[in-house]
Amino acid sequence: MSDRPLNTLTQATPPAAFWGADPPLWQREGAGWPNREASRFIRAGGLNWHVQIMGDGPPVLLLHGTGAATHSWRDLAPLLAQYFTIIAPDLPGHGFTDGGRGVQMSVPGMAGLVKALLAKLDIKPVMAIGHSAGAAILVHMCLEHMIAPRALISLNGALMPYESSTSPIIGPVARMIARNKLLPRIFAWRAADRPVVENLLRSTGSQIDEAGIEFYARLARRAGHTGGALAMMGNWDLQTLVKNLPKLKTPLLLIVGANDRSIPPADARRVQRMLPAARIVIMPGLGHLSHEEAPQATADLILDEARAQHVLQKVALPA
Q1: The domain 39-166+237-308 is classified under which CATH number: 3.20.20.210, 3.40.50.1820, 1.50.10.20, 2.60.40.770?
Q2: Full DSSP string of the chain
Q3: Smallest Cα–Cα separation from 256: which of 235, 270, 239, 240?
Q4: CB atoms within 10 A of CB 13
Q5: pTM (2 decimals)?
Q6: What is the crossing angle of helices 210-220 and 223-234, to 10°?
Q7: pLDDT digits over 20-33, tens only?
Q8: Dihedral sign for Cα atoms in the order 40, 41, 42, 44
Q9: Backbone angles phi, psi at 137, to 5 degrees
Q10: How far is CA 130 from the centre of its chain?
Q11: Where along the chain do its domains lie?
């Protein structure tokens, strides 16, 4: 495992193709970052990555969704770290990881970059957990044999094309927005008004804590982060993924917030029709950020699946 000490890190400037300068800085937005002691910065795939690694046990990869970062796992990761070694990166263009260029921000592009990161770390995850868009990246990685986990868990996964989603930014509109170099700065400027961020988070159907809102707001105020999210949406195309989905051999668990307003809960049933062996668990009253609203309940479901798929031979409650 290779990493760069935090005190020698120089934050690289993400490419300007979509969003220009002004990325989040570790010394500024990273002050008081959740689980900061687990953070390290690693060079892989031509990018400087922010990765959090914690725990001791079978390696488990966590990938967050569009517009988020490692703070999305702030409560869930420590719970899982009691049983696993957790590897949780900020995806390219998100949080404190450099931005990719062009197609690097697509599903195959992101998957290839994550593969490079895992190779640098010399880690082969035995279980992979993805939230929203992170789930789609993990499915692609499994289909392309980039990883071979025993279990794959989707948390409100974005596995269907935009047109099946209630998301207000879809298909061609997202691509048009992503190409506008000024819009990331406009979004970041608007995010300086905290109620804008609060309303955006509420629109997902979730009610998260004040700490969570603050970390989303910190990142949203930086054009480097908002531009990364827009670039990811602009390069988002799941047609090939959906076509190949029936070929997925990895056991798949779909955890769904019943109140998810970002990804229709019915999408899980569509996935299950293509993958009859996939299992669905509905979490009543929770939205798109259900793992942030109910980290312990989510951890319990993950541990049950780890036992079922022999990732953990025995799940014992910590003393």
Answers
A1: 3.40.50.1820
A2: ---B-GGG--PPPPPTTTS-S----TTTTTTT-TTGGGEEEEEETTEEEEEEEEESSSEEEEE--TT--GGGGTTHHHHHTTTSEEEEEPPTTSTTSPPP-GGGGSHHHHHHHHHHHHHHHT---SEEEEETHHHHHHHHHHHTTS---SEEEEES---S-GGGS--SS-HHHHHHHHH-SSHHHHHHHHHTSHHHHHHHHHTTT----HHHHHHHHHHHTSHHHHHHHHHHHHT---HHHHHHGGG--S-EEEEEETT-SSS-THHHHHHHHH-TT-EEEEETT--TTHHHH-HHHHHHHHHHHHHHTTSSS------
A3: 270
A4: 13
A5: 0.88
A6: 90
A7: 468 899 999 999 99
A8: positive
A9: -60, -40
A10: 6
A11: 39-166+237-308
Instruction: Give the integer Cα–Cα distance in Å for 198 and 28.
Output: 21
**What percentage of the chain reaches a pLDDT higher than 70?**
83
- Rounded Cα distance, 299 and 86, in Å: 13
What value does the mean pLDDT take over residues 126-141? 99
Reported as a single tens digit per residue, the pLDDT across 213-270 is 999 999 999 988 988 998 898 888 899 999 999 999 999 999 999 999 999 999 999 9
Q: Provide mean pLDDT across the span 168-180.
A: 55
Q: What is the pLDDT of residues 71-118, one digit of tens each?
A: 999 999 999 999 999 999 999 999 999 998 888 999 999 999 999 999
- Tokens in use for 106? 């697509």
